[in-house]
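Q: Histidine phosphatase family protein, please. Structure only.
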Amino acid sequence: MTFPELYILRHGETLWNAEDRMQGWLNSPLTPKGLEHARRQGAILAERDLEGFAFWCSPAGRAIQTAGLACPMAEAIHTDVRLREIGVGDWAGRLRHELPPGEGPDPYLAQYDMAPGGEGTAAVRARVEAFLAELQGPAVIVTHGITSRMLRATVIGDQVLDSPSPNGGQGGVYHLKDGVQELLT
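A: Structure for Histidine phosphatase family protein:
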């Protein structure tokens, strides 16, 4: 399957990111550093020709706050629940160091599949695949760390998952075009 050109942004740092707390579908506000992340993403996007691009965002407050700062050029920013972060079930709001460690090449990612009552990475992958299948053209997408990784793995390939990425690209913009990913910082 071929995919349109994409720019994928993870929301800026939140209070809970700074505390290393699992957020999942819960929300916490951006920190001053997170606000700077969003502004930096906006500066990166301002240097790009985004004519004809649709703007999409997770409905979570932290993503909407980031989109508002990073995407002032957008005439409209559409939300889609399929772009929300992975559900972490009983671990929502918990500090990572309180939880059992994940195993394998990326213990950080593996931890999400261990969460009791959580959604799991396969379910996130399925919902982002459905989102991408309906996408009508090039897009800027503001989302979350795990959701971003699943979007990028679907478009570029599973090698995106090969290296651990605890910060998930906060402050940067992933540009995906013609099967190639570039992190713009």
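A: Brief note, in case it's useful. The two ends are 28 Å apart (CA to CA).
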